[in-house]
Amino acid sequence: MELLRMEKVKDGKYLKNYELTYRNKAGREKKYEIVSRSEIPSPEAIGKRISGVSIVAYHEDKLLLLREFRMGVNRFVYNLCAGMINDGESLEECIQRELYEETGLSVHKIRTILPPSYAAVAFSDVKTQIAFVDVEGNFEDHTSENEQITAGFYTKEEVRELLETEEFSSRAQIAAYFFTIA
Predict the structure, then answer these.
(1) 182 has a pLDDT exceeding 90
(2) Cα–Cα distance between 126 and 34 in angstroms, integer?
(3) Ordered alpha helix ranges (H), the chain
């Protein structure tokens, strides 16, 4: 596969749409659409910028999950606390801010932060990191008027039940599953 050219086709408030033209393995041109959260100045910059974090959070023997309305699927799903890194903000600052904004909780300890990975390789160059943290505090709602989130701590048994009966984002589903078998 060879990228021949890239053209921005839409510049939205939060997403930029690009059309990529490839030469496929048969030697024919193939057009492919992607979205990005940031400006892509050149083909070499595709997928280089780390834009956010997903947070797998624990309190004692429980997993933090958010039940949130996601406009992209027009329904409530179980998800991880997550968000975009602001300009000039460190990853650790982003973790603390997003956790506080979405739950009112604070970071007690960062266990580990995984290397960057792609969030949706089929249609986007969005690259994020996954942080595993221990949290403390009390739940408070600091979300914007455009977010509807209910945060909760769940035992392994409760998470097993949710996995059978509720809809999840992919990353939250994977984290929840491994939480139940650990």
Answers:
(1) no
(2) 10
(3) 91-103, 156-165, 170-181
Q: Residues 60-109: pLDDT tens digits?
A: 999 999 999 999 999 999 999 999 999 999 999 999 999 999 999 999 99
Q: Which amino acid, 33? A: E
Residues 6+ away with beta carbon under 8 Å from 151: 64, 65, 66, 67, 81, 102, 103, 104, 105, 139
Q: Considering the entire predicted model, what is its pTM?
A: 0.92
At residue 49, what is the residue type?
Answer: R
Q: How large a percentage of the chain has pLDDT more than 90?
A: 94
Return the amino acid letter for 65. L
Q: Letter for the amino acid at 12?
A: G
The C-alpha torsion from 157 through 168 and 90 to 136, rounded to 10°, is -30
Measured CA to CA, the distance from residue 17 to residue 11 in angstroms comes to: 6
Residue-wise pLDDT for 108-132, tens only, equals 999 999 999 999 989 999 999 999 9
Q: What distance in Å separates the CA atoms of residue 82 and residue 22, rounded to the nearest whole number? A: 33
Q: How far is Cα 33 from Cα 20, in angstroms, rounded to an integer?
A: 6
Burial class (CB in 10 A: 0-12, 13-18, 19+), 79: buried
